[in-house]
Every structure is written in C-alpha cells, then in structure tokens.
Amino acid sequence: MGPATDGEPPASPRQTLTLAKALNTGLLSAMAADPKVVIMGEDVGKLGGVFRITDGLQARFGEDRVIDTPLAESAIVGTAIGLAMRGFRPVCEIQFDGFVYPAFDQIVSQLAKLHYRSAGRIRLPVTIRIPYGGGIGAVEHHSESPEAYFCHTAGLRVVTCSSPADAHLMIQQAVASDDPVIFLEPKRRYWEKGEVDTTPLASMPGQEQLALHTARVVRPGADATLVAYGPMIRTCLDAAQVAAEDDDRSLEVIDLRSLSPLDLDPVVESVRRTGRLVVVHEAPSNVSLSSEIAARVTEQAFYHLESPVLRVTGFDTPYPPARLEDHYLPDVDRILDAVDRSFGY
Length: 345
Prior knowledge:
Layout: E1 14-18, H1 19-33, E2 37-41, H2 57-61, E3 66-68, H3 73-85, E4 89-93, H4 104-111, H5 114-117, E5 127-132, H6 147-151, E6 157-160, H7 164-176, E7 181-186, E8 193-197, E9 216-219, E10 224-228, H8 232-247, E11 251-255, E12 258-260, H9 265-274, E13 277-284, H10 289-301, E14 310-314, H11 325-328, H12 332-343
Parallel strand pairs: 2-3, 2-4, 4-5, 5-7, 6-7, 10-11, 10-13, 13-14
Antiparallel strand pairs: 1-8, 6-12, 9-11
Helix pairs in contact: 1-7, 3-4, 8-12
C-alpha cells in the first residue's frame, strides 16, 4: 500500500528520499542511538506498517524492540505509558488518524497529565505517530485531521512535518524528547521526494539543527503571508507560484512545523511586513488552529494589518466520501481566492 523501505541507512549523508523513507531512516537512527527506543503498533513489525514506515526495522532490531500489537489502540498507548515509566522510549504507531480515538482517554487523561500530577517526578518520553489528513481516496475514518484535540491538551507536544528533510530530523527530535509528543504525518505526502541530510541526530552539531518547535519561512514574499502546516505546505507553495506567475504577487509561505507550542514570532514578523495573512489547513475551521493563529496575530500585529485575517480550511462537516474529498480539501483556487479577497479590503 505504501512505498517500500529496506530498513538500512543510506550510504551517503545527503540523499533524495521520499518522506516515508526519511521517516524510516530517522527511526532507524533513533533506535541505533538508544537501545531503550522501542516501536509498537498494529502490523509495524513483519509488515512494516500499513504505509511501510517501519519496514525492515524488526528484522534489524528484533521482535523485542519492534512489537506487533493487538488491534487495540488504548492498550498500545497504555502499555507505552508503563514502558516509559520504566525508562523506555516507546514510539507508538496509530495506523490512521481516525483510529486514535479509542486511545484518546489514555492520551489526554494519563499521558498528558502524569508529569504534572507527579510534580515533575515522572517523565513520559512517548512518541505517538499518526498519519493524518486526506487526499488519498480512503474510506471513512481514514482521512481526518484531529490535531486541535491534542493541541488543546496541556502536557502534550504536537508537531507535524511537511518535507522529507523535516521528517527525518523531527522524528528523531520527537523520540529524544522527555515529554510526550503527538507526531502527525501527512499521509498524502508520503511519496513526495526531497533532499535529506541523513546524518543521525546524535552526530549532528547543534547549530545545524532546527529546533523541534520552530516555525520556518519556506518561501519569502512581500505582499501577503500564507501560514500552513503538514500537507497544506505543498499546496500553499503551489499557490504562491501561481500568484507570482499570473498576478505578479509575492506570497510568503510559513510552515508552522509545531502546533503546540506554537512559534508565531516569524508569522507576526511577516505580517508586520506584508499586512495580510491567510491561514490554511485541512481541519474544519470551527475552534481550530487557524482560530488561535488569527486571534493571536490580530492581538500582536493589529495596527499592521491591511485586512482581516482570512482562513481557508476544511468544512465543518464529517470528512466526506472519497469521491467528494476534492471539494472538501483546500486547493490552490480557494487559497488564491482568499488572497484576492484580502487585497479587496
């Protein structure tokens, strides 16, 4: 179903990899660096995961470190919490975004709370990998964007990669974190390729690492700011290219990378220059990340705004059947329409 990976690190530090292979290589490096890192999930071992992200890892590290679990997400996360309390660094795979809800109680009631409840005596370095978002023509419960649930929960770090380079680095940083991390993977981008520095995190000088909770400008611009994350970064870059070619508009694109905590300093700095902001994500707009971003940017850059902050999102409905998802997902036309409306004020 997914791109094949072989579980072996590339021979050269710089490689052109798919996002899926970059995750595979990052997990391999994390497991090689720390024998306490274990991977758990449904079909992650012999099969290598439904998207083959863990392909080859069980053959290399054994069944004690890459563990095929029963089909029980609550049990996967509950077991990971116990392992973390005993000094391990579990990495849990949730097969699809919509399957995380049976584990929701374990995540928000236990995983997120134990460090605070124990007055800092207990740390839970658990990483929960969740392929999320639509765009692959999947059936019900396979294309959801549940990030706002977890961002609302104090005690969880929530991050998402948008490129192979970020996937490789960020998964290692997440595993190395002493706090629980919800690691969201844009499944529609698994097959996209990019250049990756495959140097293991443990061997990479600190100054060469972009911090896990840091936003990044991925395309400079001067006329308006687009802010997105995960699967929508590629769509925003495409929109910025069309705007440059057809309308002679220079759109700045910012990848949030981290959803909790949010790094909004680059966004505010950009808006103070451009005067316009459009926030883009697949999740519905109601009580969403875009709501928070719009409120905080308005508070911090109100007198620099030339128009209201606009949002391009999924609709406030359950995710539709596959034949309708192209109407649901934000696309280049909807983003450029919002940019046009921004310039209309």
